[in-house]
């Protein structure tokens, strides 16, 4: 969820501010993998597979900016401009420290 920072847990079971939990790191990895899969499928002309992979990436990690941007671009190219615009505008509400935000 956006806006909620999860704390990491140290070896003694104490929450440590500023460290991502294992679950957050795994979710980021999964979103990155789905995004990469989507880009590969896009490059090979598999639009349906590309969309499915990008939707999965955004479902796993809605604040993973590269996947949101890529899915917005694909939707826009498919003449689904309202869906693309909604995704693009969602990028503006992401915090500046969003991972992979460029």
Describe this structure in words.
The chain is mainly alpha-helical and 102 residues long. It has a single domain, classed as Tetratricopeptide repeat domain (Serine Threonine Protein Phosphatase 5, Tetratricopeptide repeat, Alpha Horseshoe), CATH 1.25.40. Helices cover 60% and strands 4% of the residues. It has four helices and two strands. A two-stranded antiparallel sheet has the order 1-2. A hairpin with a 5-residue loop joins strand 1 and strand 2. Helix 1 runs antiparallel to helix 2 and helix 3 runs antiparallel to helix 4. It is flat.
CATH topology: Serine Threonine Protein Phosphatase 5, Tetratricopeptide repeat
Overall geometry: flat
Strand order of the largest sheet: 1-2
- Helix fraction? 55-70%
Average pLDDT score: 84
According to DSSP, the number of beta strands is 2
Radius of gyration from CA coordinates: 15 Å
Which percent range describes the beta-strand content? under 5%
Main sheet? Answer: 2 strands, antiparallel
Q: How many separate helices?
A: 4
CATH secondary-structure class: Mainly Alpha
Q: What is the rounded distance between the termini? A: 20 Å
Order of helices and strands: EEHHHH
Number of domains: 1
Structural class: mainly alpha
CATH H-level superfamily title: Tetratricopeptide repeat domain
Q: Any idea what the CATH architecture is? A: Alpha Horseshoe
Contiguous low-pLDDT stretches (5 residues minimum) are 1-6
């Amino acid at each position: 969820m956006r806006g909620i920072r999860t704390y990491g847990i140290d070896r003694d079971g104490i929450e440590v501010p500023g460290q991502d939990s294992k679950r957050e790191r795994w979710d980021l990895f999964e979103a990155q993998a789905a995004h990469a899969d989507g880009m590969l499928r896009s490059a090979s002309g598999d639009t349906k597979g590309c969309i499915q992979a990008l939707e999965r990436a955004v479902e796993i990690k809605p604040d993973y900016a590269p996947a949101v941007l890529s899915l917005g671009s694909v939707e826009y190219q498919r003449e689904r401009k309202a869906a693309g615009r909604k995704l693009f505008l969602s990028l503006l509400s992401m915090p500046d420290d969003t991972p992979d935000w460029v």
